[in-house]
Amino acid sequence: MAEPPLTIDAYLAALPEDVRVILDAIRRTIRAALPDATEAISYGIPTFRLRGHDIVHFAGWKRHVSLYPVPEGDPALARAVEPYRAGKGTLRFPLDEPVPHDLIGRIATALAARREN
Predict the structure, then answer these.
(1) What are 56-113's pLDDT values in tens digits?
(2) Domain count across the chain
(3) Integer Rg of the chain from CA
(4) Which of 20, 67, 71, 111 has its CA 20 to 30 A from that of 89?
(5) Domain for residue 13, yes or no?
C-alpha cells in the first residue's frame, strides 16, 4: 500500500488531472478566505488549520469533491449548502457541475468563526 501523502501538494499530485485542477482551485478559495491558516494533511486529506485546530478538510473522489465539516448555526448558510449535503458532516460537489467557490469561501469563514467562539 502506498504511503499517505504528507503535504497537500503530494495529495494533489496523486490525483487525476481533472480532479487536481478543481481541488487546487478549492485550495486557493480556502486560502483566500483563511489567509492565516496553515496547510496540513489530517485524516489522510488536505486540511486547513488555525492556531493548531483543524478548520476545514477537502478531498477528491472519482465523481465529486468533498468538503468537511458542514457549518452549523447559520440558517441562510444551511439553506445554501443543502443541495450539496451528502451526510451529517459532508458536502459533495459533483465534478460535472460548476464548483460554488463563493459558497466554499463562506463555509471556510463560518467554520473558522465557529472555532473562535
Answers:
(1) 999 999 899 999 999 988 999 999 999 999 988 999 999 999 999 999 999 999 999 9
(2) 1
(3) 13
(4) 20
(5) yes
Neighbour-count burial of 80, counting CB atoms closer than 10 A to its CB (0-12 exposed, 13-18 middle, 19+ buried): middle
69 preceded by a cis bond (ω within 30 of 0): yes
Q: Judge whether 30 lies within some domain.
A: yes
State the cell numbers at 9.
501538494
Q: Which of 49, 5, 7, 10 is nearest to 30 (CA)?
A: 49
Angle, vertex CA 56, rays to CA 51 and CA 59, nearest 5: 135
Is residue 1 situated within a structural domain? no
* Distances from the Cα of 20 to the Cα of 31, 44, 74, 81, 103, angstroms: 16, 16, 30, 23, 19
74 assigned to some structural domain: yes
Q: pTM of the prediction? A: 0.92
